Amino acid sequence: MAVSDTERSPTRRRQPSNAKSIVGLTGPAYLWLIVTILLPLAAMLYFSFLSDVPLPGRDWQVTLSNYAAFFQEDFYRTLMLRSLRLGFEVALWCFLIGFPCAYVLAKTIKGRWREALFLMVIIPFWSNALIRVFSWTMVLRGNGMLERLLDWLIPGFGSLNLMFTYEAVVIGLVHSYLPYMILTCYISLSTIDDDLIDAARSMGAGRLTVLRRIILPLSMPGIVAGAVLIFVPVIGSFMEPRILGGREGTFLGTVIEDQFTSVFNWPLGAALSFILLACVLIIFAIFQPILRRAS
Amino acid sequence: MKARPTNMLARIYLGLVLAFLYLPILVMAAMSFNSSQFYMLPIDWTFDWYVKLAHNTRLLESTRNSILVAMVTTVIASVLGTAASIAFFRYEFRFKKVLQAALFPPIAIPWLITGTAMLLFFFWSGIGRGLHAMILGHVALALPYVIIVVSARIKGFDPDLEAAARSLGASPWQVIRHVTLPYLAPGFIAGALFAFAVSFDQFVISYFLSVPGVSTLPVEIYTAIKKGFTPEINAISTLVIAFSITLLVIVSRFYRFGGDR
Amino acid sequence: MASVTVSHVNKSFGEFRALDDVSIEFADGGFYALLGPSGSGKTTLLRQIAGFSFPDSGEILIGGEAVESLPVEKRNIGMMFQNYALFPNMSVFDNVAFGLMVRSTPRHEIKARVGEALELVRLSGYDERKPHQLSGGQRQRVALARAIVFRPRVLLLDEPLSALDKALRLGMQVELKRIQREVGITTIFVTHDQEEALTLSDKVGVLKDGKLLQEGPPRELYERPATAFAATFLGDANLFEGHVEEGELALSDGTRLRATAPLAGVGKATCAVRPEKMAIAEKGEPLRADHNHLEAELQEIIFAGNSLSYLLRRGDIHLRVFAQNRATAELQPGQRVRLTWRVADTIPVEA
């Protein structure tokens, strides 16, 4: 970056925009995104209105039947509701567990320890999600670690086989996405000036009042951002329900996967994907103002 | 410092959350050293599963594929992402906001949707599936992260540093070599490591773009899990997660995750 | 070392005229301050001289050589930046050595000269420190050593002391002056701090709205400001507005004030009087012929240890008087007093 004509006052200016360099620098990256994100989504939209894959030798025509299927058959609607419920429950649990954790990190722990602990909380999030889900199988299965632990704590506890249940899927997903909630809440909480809390208490507010009237409202952008960023991937999850849910793990995500990998009804899969994408976009649109504040 | 009871409680709570996050992984790691196939306790320590792993050609092959894909992804995503970051820093232009917003979809749209869309488009357009298709997809996922990480570093750059170097007589090339690049290096390295981690751990996209016989390690592990758990999978999973976490600890030396200060 | 000549330089950013036909002569070896409020064009002027941006028209000469189309790295100037701009990835030694390195100076010579420069700024032994391990004042010194080590023809300083706290700033002013004198380098110094400009430089140029309003030695500028702006920007001033009557300034209430010389022309006029030149007359003190006199109401006395400020009012004119803390008379707010000052301290200025 050679120095541009930077004038400190009165107006800080950069060199007049240099179209050639801008295109040269950003072009390749965005061309890549067009080929791998934009065009595939466009193709998928197109497929979702077809009766069969548009390949030579296949008989296909334009139709709305894939979307009609979703709105006419109860099966898909139930599935959608199940997925939405799963997303909601996982986000809620992440909040209930993650918010206090973020609060402790941001306001109670100080210095070097904070940084180290924060890192410990965040790093699993970036590590291999598949393997982390897989590791739960050993804990949740019948005669697994959880059952033995409970049996040891409460003799005669009996058997607890959580594996292949709805609960197992929730546990696995909460484990996967909890660091996200902690991260976003932590960022929001650490911007709250400690003096605000002290000021509120000096005016006679109790701990609960401070939490309800000061801390929660001020950290709302972080909470909402965390919830949205968890909700969205959860309603599109398929690997976690497959591994931990077994037969109980049928959600919109797994049905979409089936269309592409075993049933080979791509147009239906495309239509379902687009309905899912529509849900995602609606959620982002609703929460966009808060998300913007959070970032 | 005196430990107030609430303080103590806070620490215990944090400990429990960390236990929740790490215990399953530790259980898995411990079981990979257990000679019993059925995870009997107490653990009968053995390296057998790791030895077996060394002879499992399918897993070795897919590991090689994973590393190859991740390395190519890293190079491409780092170069393209850094170039774009520099443009965002240096120039003001009309569509800048739009371009920056366009980085959001690859991160925000569920991978299931991007993955199936890529499968459909690559298959239909003749690009096909396989390692090259995975690289195409992984770069798209890694690019936003590289741009975010590198931009965060560039943002702190004081243009006066370049001005100072020039006032001291440095030519434009010397400015880049001695001032700009050394400053950007940590951001560039963090971005590259991030790209590697994103690609190496990526499952969903790889899953849809793999063809029988050509897959990456996570896809192979998933297939094995569906067939039934074996301690061998514990062993390779333990290695992968240890590698991922090491990589991320290194990344954290170059880039602060989130708003920590 | 070299002199610098700026002649008829113009520079606009879009509609905004940052420099409007500016001409200044910077003498060889001099210490010149460019003083003005933000937006006055002082930094723009400095950056034209440095070569970070080029004038739309006009000439810039360094040592008699036209440089206005040379880029900064070819001009052989030393520059100190507001936030020092020390390279964070380099040690103190490497920072100072940078200008020599890019000039392909032999290693042993770099070592010797960096050593000398660090000694000059009294930082010997700090070679291996990184900038973030230094205090603000130390960074300052490194930046200065770095700017002069390769013996540039001109040293340019862009508000170099503004990031320091007051105590440190005073110490650095003395240091800067000492080093400048020792090296003997032509120095151009941009500041918005009038006290700094007066203390450090042997010539000051006042800029406003891209124009050079006035230039001269600090004392002359202070004692004889040409405009009301210069009078109030450089120190404090009481301004009297009125119109010319028989060579004197007639205020709206009819009071006449005499100025250094009889006022020429007719119509409106303004005179400035420094607050420290005025005094509150003791009771029974005789009226002196070479003084102006004015009755005013004392409104407030501000005590500041060794000195006092009196705030006074006459009609709608607000006045300020500075005095040493040795006044014997007990004055009370609300009291009417008589102000007195020498006719020679009443300076006619442009409004």
From TrEMBL, chain A:
CDD domains: TM_PBP2 (cd06261)
Keywords per UniProt: Cell membrane, Membrane, Transmembrane, Transmembrane helix, Transport
Xref: Gene3D superfamilies: MetI-like (1.10.3720.10)
Transmembrane portions of the chain: 21-47, 86-105, 117-140, 214-235, 266-287
Residues of the ABC transmembrane type-1 domain: 80-287
Localization per Swiss-Prot or TrEMBL: Cell membrane
Chief location of this protein within or outside the cell: membrane
Membrane topology: Multi-pass membrane protein
Matches recorded under InterPro entries: MetI-like (IPR000515), MetI-like_sf (IPR035906)
PANTHER family: INNER MEMBRANE ABC TRANSPORTER PERMEASE PROTEIN YDCU-RELATED (PTHR42929:SF1), INNER MEMBRANE ABC TRANSPORTER PERMEASE PROTEIN YDCU-RELATED-RELATED (PTHR42929)
Family to which the UniProt record says this protein belongs: Belongs to the binding-protein-dependent transport system permease family. CysTW subfamily.
Name assigned to this protein: Peptide ABC transporter permease
Automatic annotation (TrEMBL), chain B:
Record PANTHER family: PUTRESCINE TRANSPORT SYSTEM PERMEASE PROTEIN POTI
Keywords tagged on the record: Cell membrane, Membrane, Transmembrane, Transmembrane helix, Transport
Domain ABC transmembrane type-1: 63-251
Topology in the lipid bilayer: Multi-pass membrane protein
Protein known as: Peptide ABC transporter permease
Assigned protein family: Belongs to the binding-protein-dependent transport system permease family. CysTW subfamily.
Organism: Salinicola acroporae
Localization: Cell membrane
TM regions (residue ranges): 12-33, 67-89, 101-124, 130-154, 175-198, 235-255
Automatic annotation (TrEMBL), chain C:
Any GO MF annotation of the entry: ATP binding
Gene3D superfamilies membership: 2.40.50.100, P-loop containing nucleotide triphosphate hydrolases
Presence of the UniProt keyword Thylakoid in the record: no
Domain ABC transporter: 4-234
Uppermost EC category: translocase
Catalytic activity annotation: ATP + H2O + polyamine-[polyamine-binding protein]Side 1 = ADP + phosphate + polyamineSide 2 + [polyamine-binding protein]Side 1
Keyword set, alphabetical order: ATP-binding, Cell membrane, Membrane, Nucleotide-binding, Translocase, Transport
Matching Pfam families: ABC_tran, TOBE_2
EC number, UniProt record: 7.6.2.11
Described function: Part of the ABC transporter complex PotABCD involved in spermidine/putrescine import. Responsible for energy coupling to the transport system.
Subunit structure of this chain's protein: The complex is composed of two ATP-binding proteins (PotA), two transmembrane proteins (PotB and PotC) and a solute-binding protein (PotD).
Similarity section: Belongs to the ABC transporter superfamily. Spermidine/putrescine importer (TC 3.A.1.11.1) family.
Protein name: Spermidine/putrescine import ATP-binding protein PotA
Species of provenance: Salinicola acroporae
